[in-house]
Specification:
By secondary structure, the protein is an alpha+beta fold. Helix content is 26%, strand content 23%. It has 16 helices and 21 strands. Strands 14, 15, 16, 17, 18, 19, 20 and 21 form an 8-stranded antiparallel sheet that branches. A 5-stranded antiparallel sheet has the order 7-8-12-10-11. It has a 4-stranded mixed sheet with strand order 3-4-6-5. Helix 10 runs antiparallel to helix 13. It is globular and about 70 Å long.
């Protein structure tokens, strides 16, 4: 997901497909690479033979990158540069056949396996040290059927092209808030977005998938065929395999929406929070109000407010936004008609690796006065660094789906509370992390689980089980069936029991 981009964009270029030439696709045939050190999923040190690596490179259409190869350093990085890891090798599939070969190689050598799509994993799960990274950045394509209102998206695709292609026909499906987020990571975790309250989570609009499971087999899954796998990938994260194709239901929507921010001085945070807590749960489905408190670096005045996306009739917008404007003249009010695709791109980060960050997040239920007090009183500027607290709003159609209808079980949440601090990459981040943890201690009593796309770095089996709630035992059985050796463990991991 990534979540850093969302919270930073709440109050503030899409990635281009890498050059795709024959020279970039094939490793030269010649002397075998040298043997290299690697690590298995359970932490054992092993040696990968150069001959085996060359055989993989010869069979893949896409490149296999080793540490000395051009492109390796770019490929290994993810959005949060705090995770500066070095895979033993990076496979860059160009299609399903390549994905199967890469998975087979990883399984046969029991390699620690990371899967990277958009690189937005905030806790660094899409990269690893001394394992294999399966980088899907060369496996991107979107196809739209405007008559059938369907979209087919390949496994490495980003949100921006899907929004762009679908909206060309006046169609949409809920897809995150930052256009360079990877579809694979976003959707398998649930998939919030600016129109999710109107149309449901991304997984609620996912009608079928193709998955390469840990045994290297290619499986189609929908409500009728491999229905257990279809259920599991809708919120079970990357636990069961690599999704190589997604099929989405599209919905008609006007291209022009109202978007922007309404904000007040941060001294009025408690007042605004109480208004938001009362109004947000009952707001109409076509209105999304993502809350935020921001203290910028450099002494600029902080503010509290909401980022707006209103996709309903323009004549009804003023009435819908009246409660948020009820505190008098805002410090910021730039809400205006705008193109939906432009709004989706408005939070994109151009310099992906300039800033490091630390984030804590969790779902909240009802926004009580005790919670709003804790949120407001604990907020303070920190060491001249950008400090943000945000709520990605839930409810609406998201909450009218049964907890066990998909693997995503937090349908009762009011929203996803996020707290973040960031700093220039290369600076010691320990004080910033300590500050964020102190803030989080004040609000943690109100947290009811976490979004798996924001999973903390330190996870326990017990905590994961509690977080998946009523769906955990079913997820374990699906894991036992499709990934009994736990090849895909760099996620909110469901440990197999076989």
């Amino acid at each position: 997901m990534k979540r850093r981009s969302f919270v930073r964009s709440t109050f503030a270029a899409a990635l281009s497909v890498p050059a795709f030439t024959p020279q970039s696709l094939f490793r030269p045939i010649g002397q075998d690479p040298v043997d290299i050190d690697a690590i298995t999923g359970d932490g054992r040190e092993i040696t990968l033979k150069g001959k085996a690596i060359k055989e993989l490179a010869d069979r893949l259409r896409g490149p296999v990158l080793l540490a000395h190869d051009e492109g390796y350093d770019q490929a290994r990085m993810i959005l949060n540069p705090s995770f500066d890891k070095h895979p033993a090798l990076i496979a860059q599939p160009t299609g399903t056949a390549d994905v199967r070969l890469a998975v087979d190689f990883a399984r046969e050598h029991s390699l620690l396996t990371a899967v990277k799509c958009g690189g937005h994993s905030f806790s660094g799960k899409s990269t690893c040290d001394k394992g294999i990274m399966i980088d899907l950045s060369r496996f991107r394509n979107v196809r739209i059927d405007p008559n059938g209102r369907k979209a087919w998206v390949t496994g490495g695709s980003l949100l921006g092209p899907l929004d762009h292609e679908a909206m060309a026909y006046g169609l949409v499906t809920p897809m995150g808030t930052v256009s360079h987020t990877g579809v694979g990571g976003l959707v398998t975790g649930g998939g919030f977005g600016r129109v999710a309250r109107r149309f449901g989570l991304a997984i609620d609009n996912l009608t079928a998938v193709n998955v390469v499971t840990a045994d290297g087999e290619f499986r189609y899954a929908d409500a009728n065929e491999n229905s257990d796998l279809y259920w599991g990938v809708r919120g079970g994260s990357g636990n069961f395999g690599i999704v190589t194709s997604f099929e989405f239901q599209l919905h008609p929507m006007e291209r022009q929406v109202l978007g922007g921010t309404i904000g007040y001085p941060i001294a009025r945070a408690k007042e605004f929070l109480d208004i938001y807590a009362d109004y947000a749960p009952q707001a109409r489905d076509d209105l999304t109000l993502d809350f935020g408190m921001v203290i910028p670096p450099g002494g600029a005045p902080g503010f509290v407010g909401a980022q707006v996306c209103f996709s309903g009739p323009p004549s009804e917008a003023d009435r819908a936004l009246a409660p948020i404007r009820s505190m008098g003249t805002p410090m910021i009010d730039d809400v205006q008609p705008m193109d939906y695709v432009a709004l989706q791109r408005s939070g994109d980060v151009d310099d992906f690796r300039a800033r490091a960050a630390y984030l804590k997040s969790g779902f909240i239920g009802s926004m009580t006065s005790d919670l709003t007090t804790a949120m407001a009183e604990s907020m303070e500027g920190h060491l001249d660094r950008l400090t943000i607290v945000a709520i990605q709003q839930s409810g609406g159609k998201i909450g009218r789906v049964a907890d066990d209808a998909t693997a995503f079980s937090h349908r009762d949440a009011t929203g996803n509370l996020l707290a973040i601090v960031d700093w220039p990459y290369g600076e010691d981040g320990s004080e910033h992390v300590a500050y964020e943890r102190r803030y989080w201690a004040g609000v943690e009593p109100f947290i009811q689980g976490y979004y798996v796309n924001d999973a903390p770095e330190e996870l326990t089996a017990e905590g994961i089980g509690k977080n998946y709630r009523v769906n955990y035992e079913r997820l374990v059985q699906i894991k036992n069936k499709y990934d009994p050796t736990n090849l895909f463990r760099l996620n909110t991991n469901i440990a197999p029991t076989v």
